[in-house]
Amino acid sequence: MRPVKINHERHSLHQRAVEIVTTLPYSTLFSLWIVLTAGFAMCYALLATFIPEQAPQALINLPLLDKLGNSLYFSIVTATSTGYGDIVPYGFSKVLSSIQSISALIIFAVFITRLVSQEQEIALKEIHRLTYEDVFHNTREGFFIIRKDIDRILGKVERRESLTPQDWEDLATAYKLGQSLLLEIPDFYDAEDNHLYTIDERREQLLQEAVHRTLHRINQLIDECSIAGVDWTRQKQSVQELEEFLHVVHKITPLWRDRSPYQRHESFENILRLMERVTNRMTAVLP
Asked: Is there a domain that residue 107 lies in?
């Protein structure tokens, strides 16, 4: 078991090192490349000065400034893998130039990886935004469809027309759709998980208005049914789905209010008041 633990620790350290390197900003990567290039240039110049047999031969016996300039030139050529061949390493300078080439390639690879990763992140954010826009429009459209179904049934009640089993089934389906739509609303604020998109204040107001109007229509329908003498409490499926819809409103609205970064608590209170009104009406008439 011990070798497995050691290998796991090594893998964790390696993964952590990779994460640190790959998250370095571009300025840091470029600075690191400059420092390494200058450092290796200094090493070539020192070799040419003190251990000439281990240095690139073209650097030997040059004046100090020329030696430093040519060492820097050779270091840049090595780091960029250009390899003109006018300065050739010998002895230990071969080891240095090999290490420099590998180091420079790693830095370039990290740089390219960061660049590609940034482009992918931008594309992901845009896709995520568009997806949320689509969900937002579908949510508003869903509440509009619910209100249209309620308005159609409300119109029949106002005209004192008999409601068919299909009408009650459509009403139950509308309440069920409302439950599903309400459950999606908190996801618009799920910034702690995705860090990508939170609904703006204008769209939040539109959603609040959609929920408020839907609850208002339900109140109107109950009022009109009472005036017309329509016993809606006998429609078990419709009543059950309405109760569940109100339960979801009661559960989701406080969560919605807590996740909202905007100071519009009055709108949430209005939604809860309408929900309580319908709940009280149902409590009063249901057995």
From this structure: no
